[in-house]
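Q: My labmate handed me this sequence with no annotations at all. I'd like to see what the chain might look like in three dimensions before we decide whether it's worth expressing. Could you predict it?
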Amino acid sequence: MAKIDEVHVGKDDVLFLLQGSNNVSSQYVNSPESQFFLIHWRLVIAQRERRLRNLGIAYKHVLMPEKITIYDNLLKDFDINWQMSPGYRLCHKDEYYNWFPLRRLRIDQYLKRRARWRGTLIDLIGPMRHRRDEQDLFYRTDSHLSFAGRLLAYREICRAIGAVPVRDFWERPTTYHAGWAGDLGGAFTPPRYEGATLHHIQRDAVRVYASPVVEHFERQGLEGTLHTGAHVIYENPRATDPRCVILFGDSYANFMPFGLTMMLAETVRELHFIWSTQIDYGYIERVRPDLVLTEMSERFIFRPADDTWDLERYAQRRYGDELAAVHAEARSA
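A: Here is what I predict for the chain of 333 residues:
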């Protein structure tokens, strides 16, 4: 949950995350640090694509835009250049290479790698800015996408991976919450509320696996607090797309019944979701999917990749003691 001094109240009382643990607004500058991380992630994405291609697995990377990148026109007495956003620069700009030493990377090699990562990235900034005035693509009191925003992102992903999008998500059951405060609205006292409609996407996809971490949090009614290390698998025998997909994502993917993960689970025959911005290559090699998708908020560009990450090792380190205590209590009951 954001703190009140990290939240900007924009026009029409739309709330924006400007600071937070990732110091979001300070990322919209042309600094040596930003240039380093942009180069770092381009190389990481190119390396991931090459390594997975050698395994016969397709790869796409989805960069989820910040709210201020899309709705900079709703900021009040606060100016940013949205074209300096990490996501836009990662997808579209090359000029910072003018000063960066390329002694170890020949220009022709760089051009080949550029073609690779540009073909691998799924750009949502252009489509979202084009449609931003037609619908609210983000919740007004939250930093995350609304249903309309998720649906737009989902359709762009389907287009990029060659999947036929499900057409009837708008028609599925909904629940309206008149007094709902998002992660930004909850920073205020009293909270700032908005009316929110939740679309219950899940119909054909069946969850066939939930990790002990997910099951533990769900038993406590705390599934909304899950984070890195959550792991679920869905099967959908009615899907017309026969592919198996692994999705590594963050809170913008969210595997709740109304999230982006569920939209994809309703689309393909088998979907594995792992909450992580890193890749677990051991897991990929065991499952051998047709496609790996990584989804990451653009604010995380300022964090280095660590593709030596291991899901089981992470879950044991972060949740092992808590789960062991629960099991011990159950045995003694």
